[in-house]
Amino acid sequence: MNATATQHGHPSSTAFLHTLKAANLAAMVVYIVLSLASALAGSAAAVLLVPLVQPEHSLVLGGITFGVQGGIEAHAAIFVAVTVAFALLRWQAARLAARLASRYGMNLRRSVHARLIDASLPSLADTSSAEIANVLTYNVEIITQGFNALLQLLVAGITAAISLGLAFWVSPPLALAAPLFAVLALVASRINSRAQAAVSRQYVADLTRLFWHSEDFPRRLRHVRSFGREDAEKNSYGEVTARLGRGYRHQLDLIASARLTLELLAAAGITAIFMLAYRLHGIDQASLIAVCLLLGRLLPYLVSTRQSFQQLHSAAPAFELWQRYMDLSAAQPSTVQASTAHATSTLRFEHVQLAPPLAALDIREVSLVPGTLTLVSGDSGIGKSSLIDVLAGMMWPGAFAARIGQRSLDFADYRELVRNGAYVSQSVRPWQHSVRECLLWAVPEATDDMLRSALADVGLDKRLAGSRDGLDTALNSASSRLSGGELQRLLLAQVLLRQPFIALLDEATSALDAASEIAVLSALKRRLPETILIVVSHRGSVATVADQCLTIGNDFTVSQRTAGHARAVLSGGLV
Fold first, then answer.
1. Cβ–Cβ contacts within 10 Å for residue 57, how many?
2. What pLDDT is recorded for position 8?
3. Which of 113, 187, 240, 531 is the most exposed, having the fewest neighbouring CB atoms within 10 Å of its CB?
């Protein structure tokens, strides 16, 4: 986390103010104006109660006599009109606050999601999918609640300023109690603030653990049951939920304690005003009533203000987490023009060396021809997936030199070349709702006939023919859920539709049986004559459809074999 994100555990005010700019500053100015107008109207309504309480006396405030013709009926009509104006202004301000909070939360989600999409792969090395899920969902809700609390504090501050200002105008001696109220409010705002911040940080951490327990639940359930660890999972989940329950209860206890303190302080403050009124000379009853009504308007805000401070304390750790992901380093953008290389050109890697800690993996003089399949094999953890990341243009290598046709390529040139690519990993599962949505995500302009043709090539057509929904078959419903192998076939159908320059399949057929794997890979070669196919697999049988094989040894040496030699070795039982 860089220095702009946090300082001693507190979010940077500059970073927070930057998020406020995205919330539409013009609308916030309108919100402030509406809040100011409603505060004026509310204070006026409070003052206009005086002649209703003392109908036989003229309204004398601040040494000025206010007379209204028409008696009590006229006073009541004016009071109703001002009260209605106050209600309408507060209603409009509340509606605008709702729009501001909605826009603020939307911008937070879009910003952090966009940063995650653009993040470099190394910057995500120490993150967990559970924490990312929390950042994109509940964590933003907490921050948005904090933003809404800030709006409420703004209203409370404006209302307090207007009410205290009018109280001072009505009776300067009585307004001497205002500093007492200010001191009491400051004391109240600091009650349990550190405890609340600690509880909030633990709450955010426990929610992340809860996301971790809930992640990929159907697959995890099978694993848990196979090990007979149901009780252990229940206990572990129960411990997290118990901490969340205790944290939530602690928060409510802190709020209740703060409310009690505020109410006691308010009672002491009001008593002090009356005592001051009776001890000072020259304070009439109308002034006393007016000041009490004006200051009484602040009582509801005392409780809401304390709650708003609690929400701000809760939002602080959530904002820290959000800002940490906003500070992720972005993948280096390409700065070159689109390549004009023909899809039929041979791509030759003269030198590819991975960056540390896998710098020992050094590949030289490997040629990739469109329409051919290259098998990459080796033990787990040897660097196959890191090599695929480099070949996909997603991870910067330690050294790189390549050529396509007669043109030399540095890595920036190469990244631009492979932008028309397709990368499918074993761990990726479709997140779209239906088969149609999944395929159109890859190629939005594809027709239904193109979709069905691609599904037939990967062997999914018969599966969907038995579904009443066809292309609209849901991917995750209980009645039509596709198996792991079927989901891999679906992702390979995306590759067929995309017609990429290079397709990198990192164990993308691992859920298929050997015969189905060979059939699908053969279909890919047949349907993609202008695509370079690179397949990572632990199955030696893939060599039967490969045009060349790259094997990474335990000493990080890379051996290259042609298709004929690979098949001969396979038939001899050595692969």
1. 13
2. 40
3. 187
How many angstroms separate the Cα of 397 from the Cα of each of 347, 358, 509, 550?
17, 10, 26, 18
- C-alpha 544/C-alpha 540 separation (Å) is 8
Asked if 550 and 560 count as a contact pair (C-beta separation under 8 A), the reply is yes
**Treating both helix axes as pointing N-terminal to C-terminal, what angle do 71-118 and 138-170 enclose, rounded to 10 degrees?**
150
290, 47 contact by CB (below 8 A): yes
Does this model's pTM top 0.85? Answer: no
Chain centroid to Cα 340, Å, comes to 38
404: helix, strand or coil:
strand
11's CB contacts (< 8 A; 6+ apart) are 5, 316, 319, 320, 323
Distance CA 318, CA 141 (A): 9
Q: Whole-angstrom distance between the N-terminal and C-terminal Cα of the chain?
A: 47
Is residue 241 classed as helix, strand or coil in its secondary structure?
Answer: helix
Q: Which is nearest to 547 in space by CA: 370, 417, 402, 383?
A: 370
Q: Where are the alpha helices (DSSP H) in 216-284?
A: 217-226, 230-279
Angle at 137 between CA 209 and CA 4, to 5 degrees: 85
Tell me the C-alpha distance between 294 and 170, whole Å: 10
The angle that helices 230-279 and 217-226 make with each other, rounded to 10 degrees, is 130
Reading the block at residue 552, the tokens are 């990474």
Query: Helix, strand or coil for residue 480?
Result: coil
What φ, ψ does residue 499 adopt, rounded to 5°? 55, 60
In this structure, what are the phi and psi dihedrals at residue 125, rounded to the nearest 5 degrees? -65, -35
Query: CA distances (Å), 532 to each of 22, 90, 343, 345, 535, in order?
Result: 44, 64, 9, 10, 10
Q: Going by DSSP bridges, is the β-strand pair 362-368/558-562 parallel, antiparallel, or unpaired?
A: unpaired
Q: What was the pLDDT predicted at 519?
A: 93
Alpha helices in 119-137 (DSSP H): 129-136
Residue 191's pLDDT is 60
Residues near 78 by Cβ (< 8 Å), separated by ≥ 6?
A: 48, 68
The answer to whether 285 touches 233, Cβ cutoff 8 Å, is: no
User: Do residues 536 and 565 make contact, with C-beta atoms less than 8 angstroms apart?
Assistant: no
Beta-ladder partners of 375 = 535, 549
